[in-house]
Amino acid sequence: MRPLARLASLRSPVAGQAFKSTLSTRAVASRTSWTPAPIPRISSTSLRSFSLSTSHHRFQVYVKKQNTKMTSTATTLKGQPLDKGALESMLRRRMFFAPSFDIYGGVAGLYDYGPPGCALQANIIDIWRKHFVLEEDMLEVDCTALTPHDVLKTSGHVDKFADWMCKDPKNGDILRADHFVEDVLEARLKGDKEARGQKVEDKEEDPKRKKKKAKGTEAVKLEDAVVKEYEEILAQIDNYNGEQLGELIKKYDLKNPATGVQPEPPVAFNLMFQTAIGPSGNLAGYMRPETAQGQFLNFAKLLEYNAGNMPFASASIGKSYRNEIAPRGGLLRVREFLMAEIEHFVDPAGHKKHERFHEVADIELALLDRNVQLSGQTTVTKMTIGEAVKQKIVDNETLGYFLARIHLFLKKIGVDQSKIRFRQHMGNEMAHYACDCWDAELLTSSGWVECVGCADRSAYDLTVHAKKTGAPLVVRETLETPEIVEKWEPEINSKKFGPTFRKDAKTVEAAILALPQEELAKLAEELKTNGKIVVDVPGVGDGKVEVSKDLVAIEWKKHTINIREYTPNVIEPSFGIGRILYSLLEHNYWVREGDEARGVISFPPAVAPVKVLIVPISSKAEFAPHVRRLSQKLRSVGISSRVDDSSASIGRRYARNDELGTPFGLTIDFQTLQDGTFTLRERDSTRQVRAEEEKIVDAIKALVEGSKTWQDVESELPIFEGQELEIRPAEN
Amino acid sequence: MRPLARLASLRSPVAGQAFKSTLSTRAVASRTSWTPAPIPRISSTSLRSFSLSTSHHRFQVYVKKQNTKMTSTATTLKGQPLDKGALESMLRRRMFFAPSFDIYGGVAGLYDYGPPGCALQANIIDIWRKHFVLEEDMLEVDCTALTPHDVLKTSGHVDKFADWMCKDPKNGDILRADHFVEDVLEARLKGDKEARGQKVEDKEEDPKRKKKKAKGTEAVKLEDAVVKEYEEILAQIDNYNGEQLGELIKKYDLKNPATGVQPEPPVAFNLMFQTAIGPSGNLAGYMRPETAQGQFLNFAKLLEYNAGNMPFASASIGKSYRNEIAPRGGLLRVREFLMAEIEHFVDPAGHKKHERFHEVADIELALLDRNVQLSGQTTVTKMTIGEAVKQKIVDNETLGYFLARIHLFLKKIGVDQSKIRFRQHMGNEMAHYACDCWDAELLTSSGWVECVGCADRSAYDLTVHAKKTGAPLVVRETLETPEIVEKWEPEINSKKFGPTFRKDAKTVEAAILALPQEELAKLAEELKTNGKIVVDVPGVGDGKVEVSKDLVAIEWKKHTINIREYTPNVIEPSFGIGRILYSLLEHNYWVREGDEARGVISFPPAVAPVKVLIVPISSKAEFAPHVRRLSQKLRSVGISSRVDDSSASIGRRYARNDELGTPFGLTIDFQTLQDGTFTLRERDSTRQVRAEEEKIVDAIKALVEGSKTWQDVESELPIFEGQELEIRPAEN
């Protein structure tokens, strides 16, 4: 599998405008202290950071280019080297996921979840909903994915949510420009190494890609200076815009290995799936690229639903769509994916304090702040979130609160604690309006993967939609101590004003009402002295209009302001559920010592697709009633089970379910028929206890709910030894 | 609100081919015994019955045209006349749902669910998943909504999933042809009534539509014969194809009231949202119009996942998309909607028995079978499903099992038992391959609404996809008693055959292997007698090829067949979640006696968006710890609550939550501060009990889980009387 560090994320228009200076800053950094970090990263859950650069718009990557030549150093849950091929083959065999439309040849970037993947996803979502929505009384909404053009025009997606692509003039292939440049230069560097007789590290890749790339690899020695140039380009491949990528293609005469010709210059390709709504074809629409917009558009209704109380959060779980040019990386980069997003609306005036911050202040996070990154390091600092906010490393309490809550959520679903870090966006990665932004990244065989973004987006989104539509997306707050305001106020005598100025009346009135305070003060004086004033009204007469005192009065007036109106800021935690799900699979996978074919996924019971495997030791009819009763009983206490009454040995049946991550096994054996006792097996230790039905069911319930550990159960119920002997390596 | 009886459903190609005869059958029926039924119907959850008729394809309606002139006779849960306007205003005020993109002017047929709608939907889905997926060990999958063209071409949607539309040449308006004809004729009949001085019944409609239609209504008297003609056309409006609708428009010179001109002839409009997948734009795709196809395509993998065992069912919950020409009817006809579909795969050889049928055999359903409908009646028959299958009214046990299970599901979520019926499709409504099909219809203010379809689709879907792709979408079953087959078999001597016939060898071999048994028998004899045979091989030499016995042998051979291969049939229950949700709102709505402004939605606790309202009687600081502790405690036992600590009176706060359907209210009052007791209020009766915290929480838990009724609780805990007095009509 090739490293995916340069998978794109989105950037803000203004971050994009700062693009050139950013680029040069980085170039300097890389020549001095900045060194490539050892592990690549995948970004792009965050949907918001797109950039504008030169005349074309660019969907730009914000990662530092890191070493892409490394082989995977990923490990299993037990610290064994991760055999990604074995894991993926197991995941497909057990139908965690499968390419969509497989029998029709499939479509890149589209995957279906099979039964265990689907249950795993449902459990993650269920925990997410409890952890965030219910725990914090968030207002969950379900908005449509179909979105009309105007909405995404306002949000900036229509103009800027794009990648650069090149067309091969010979065969019409569409290449993603940055990937193309990178692939060809990497192939040349590889050829150079071969020519120099150096060992070329084999990257894990899917065979199709390898074959295609192999075409371009020839053992040709390059000059040392050229090698250095190529390496420098690769180190900052994510920072080139379309024009610059086009220049590189020309300068180095980069050719598509498939055809041997140079592709056409890069053009911007919008990543949204477009469609037409309604029969006329006139209403352009898109499949939403994120779930956030629906929440912003409903802001006023949600505020009203919340009885006007601030702060509050909305939340949404739903599919989003991105028409990737050439998806790679399995579940990590797909064209249709499940997101869970929260928009926490907060008054910017209160320093974004959070009333429950004290509950999480002592939680320790692994932080990779922007200063460390700017110094070329990737060393994380373990620090309590309380300390991080105090030191201003994290901008404010609300943002800090959500980082800690995200951490707790990831921990709860079983993410490996040693494989989480929170990475802060650097200044040039962030949207201009954003105050601060952190990604929760999970370490996988593809490097650090951005799985959750958490940004303080200020008042940007509500402001642009309010401006476009005129809808008052604001909070009106009754002031405890009313504010007194005194100012000059012109007052028009409507009765006379209209007849006097006729068709120009509105224009003249508007000009007067728009006058600044200092001008009004002057004119009030003039009106008193001369009984008339002269006002500049471009377009009316000669641009000067005389207004007499019977038509207008200008007075110093006192106002009591009881209402404060403001646009809330928004803190946005945004979860890529598919990426979290895939990372979870890798984090919980391991193989039984001494038998590499025996994979296990040690899901915590709460997320495990199925909680209990029921295994009758024999297919004799006497066993059937026990199986039915147990299933029924477990179901009635809300625990999912599956029966395996196949003729395979008990050991083989357990091994099959270890691969599915089923935490508990319930065996019905001949002793059951005599005394009504069952054995309960724990997946990870393969240890067993034996007891009567009620005790066993109670134990399972406590284990699944998390109120007891397996150690507790072993201390309460008699240990059973025997059957597990049947699991011999030879059987698997 | 206008009746929606003619909202379209889909029909099979062959049902469409039988279209003309069907039409005439109906015409006869309507002239003799068939009388319009009193209540209109809405169909179209079932995605599968599209029809082909004449040269154009048509997305055809299968309902008998019924009386569309009636006013709503809908009633509330308590039998009061339903004030639909009041209900809808309440639902919007409480944000059950809202038009999507409202601040941008909205898009017809797109709705967002607000917090209570979203929670209601999540609860319905949760119960659905437990009731179907977990209870029956179904294999749930989550497939992409993006679907490539080829898949939907094979399924028939590309060619036949269409409606007829007309364009207005003057203003470019697109009109749905059947609706247009209907609207104009209805307006003329209304004008006629006015001219005759008859009372015109006012239909409930949204004001916009009314205004538009009013334009076309002029008080012009028609001849009696014309009135009769119009009425006959309206009675069968759903049965006209595009050409016929075009003829009606010409014949009666129907003009668009908005422009005064006749629209162009109807053309077919495909109802799928089209898009392009990938950057080249060459891979056409659609947003799926149903979730079923993904399940069919994964059949082979699912069968393997299920260890080859039959029968089994897959299930899927997800959004589907239909580009309606002119959506009307709120949540009942939308362009993006949530479906839940089951595909139960069964061996057709076993008479489609179901092993759990005995569990449901005694359940009584309200059936409206096809014979009753053909006789022009809509009288339902109450009958146990056991009896219905026995009498062959319902085709088979598996179909019957699911009808009963659907009934139990609808009952569980709180559908009014007096407002469900199961209506059988008539022969001409069904796809040619379908054996039987029943819709669960719910009675609403828009008439009988098709909310669940349940069809026996035979082997159609798997067969067409297997034929198109070559994938073996079959079950291979080891026969218990192997079958012995004896037959003539030619055996080619490959070593000599190639050199003898050279380039023609393959062709000659194929010709021999394709020979029928009787021919082979004859040739075997010939080979024995003459030592050679002459075979017809068109295109080789003169079309006759001589083959000697050293090149081929033909022998009578015995084979033992151990494997039986078959394509499973599929029973498909298909749920339109949005329609069920809307019907549920109507079924559970009522108003408190004596105060029409006090709406209540009596959701069963399991589906209620929020289970408990926590109401501190005062905003004093002493109350806060109680509020926090109670919320926390309820959450820990999995029960969602909401706090209303506003300054409104207790009565007003309860009234607000009655509208949200919150079943229980927990009041913290001054007595709580002294003795730690709380009052618990039941929404429907407004009765209260008072007890200490633990007893109250236990009672709530039992009530929500359904293990106790309110009567049980009243018999166990002391009745409390007092606070409810605060709810005075004047306060609301």
Automatic annotation (TrEMBL), chains A, B:
Known catalysed reaction(s)? 2 ATP + H(+) = P(1),P(4)-bis(5'-adenosyl) tetraphosphate + diphosphate
Q: Which PROSITE patterns match?
A: AA_TRNA_LIGASE_II
Q: Which domain of life is it from?
A: Eukaryota
Q: Where is this region: Disordered?
A: 192-215
The free-text function statement in the UniProt record for this protein reads: Catalyzes the ATP-dependent ligation of glycine to the 3'-end of its cognate tRNA, via the formation of an aminoacyl-adenylate intermediate (Gly-AMP). Also produces diadenosine tetraphosphate (Ap4A), a universal pleiotropic signaling molecule needed for cell regulation pathways, by direct condensation of 2 ATPs. Thereby, may play a special role in Ap4A homeostasis.
Task: Name a single GO biological process.
Answer: mitochondrial glycyl-tRNA aminoacylation
| Taxonomic lineage from the root | Eukaryota, Fungi, Dikarya, Ascomycota, Pezizomycotina
Q: Does the keyword Transferase apply?
A: yes
A Pfam family matched by this chain, by name? HGTP_anticodon
Assembly with partners or alone: Homodimer.
Tell me the protein's name.
glycine--tRNA ligase
The record, for NCBIfam families, names: glyS_dimeric (TIGR00389), PRK04173.1 (NF003211)
Q: Where is the composition biased (Basic and acidic residues)?
A: 192-208
Tell me where in or outside the cell this protein is found.
Cytoplasm
State the similarity comment: Belongs to the class-II aminoacyl-tRNA synthetase family.
